[in-house]
């Protein structure tokens, strides 16, 4: 299995259009610091078929950036696009609308995520006049896996955090999940968790057995959203465990045998500046900061 990071930013991207914080201004001055919304392309063993994990508002530019994701020569068009969703948040789903030129979209998601997209965002109503849409269940890890590009895909339930547009919907711990990707050919397993509200037992168990783990790097520390006045809530209160500090993910990730990479960076995170000292802290723990366009072979 081959993983290609199409983007590594949280909602808004880096820079965010209406923001002039140091992270956003830095990315305007240094285009190599720009980050698109977090998304992953996953290639199967034969490298000819692929699927996406999350489809944010940048998705068609992200597909266009990488030759392996472009259509074949001549009049061929990409016939089917398969997309796995880790949640129903706008930064992970707005790109579904941008894929309407496909002949067919196959969307893998848990029940609450499917329901939110179909009933609250009316995606079926909007997309069906343009493209065929098939919805697939993303089953819990351990159950009969769904298969895309020869990879077994499943969900590790993480939290009941609902998108703001579905705040009154019923609680369900599959609102936010980690995507578990297992390649039966190589035996490798990857976890993709761009929103991690709590270090659950289920996540700890799957992470301990994985070869590669992508984790929520939205905020560096618990107080960052309040200190920078972007929210009245803490990082954990916003559904994102911070990287640093006593309840942070860095200490736990450093204990894992897996290759661990942070993704889903908010523009307030000091890590969006490549010379920030926080990079040294993570390097000392053996942890990586994902960049757009990374290729990982497992
Ligand atoms: C999040 O990651 O917390 C959400 O995507 C927030 C948002 O973009 O509204
Ligand atoms: Mn997000
Ligand atoms: Zn900013």
TrEMBL record:
Top-rank taxon of the source lineage equals: Bacteria
Q: Which residues form a coiled coil?
A: none
The pathway where this protein functions is: Cofactor biosynthesis; pyrroloquinoline quinone biosynthesis
Presence of keyword Transferase: no
Specify whether Nucleotide-binding is a keyword of the entry. Answer: no
Which Pfam families does the entry link to?
Lactamase_B_2
Every Metallo-beta-lactamase domain range: 50-265
UniProt keyword annotations, A-Z: PQQ biosynthesis, Transport
**InterPro entries named among the record's database cross-references:** Metallo-B-lactamas, PQQ_synth_PqqB, RibonucZ/Hydroxyglut_hydro
Family as reported in the entry's similarity comment: Belongs to the PqqB family.
This molecule's function is given as: May be involved in the transport of PQQ or its precursor to the periplasm.
Listed name of the protein: Coenzyme PQQ synthesis protein B
Query: What is the organism field in this record?
Result: Streptomyces poriferorum
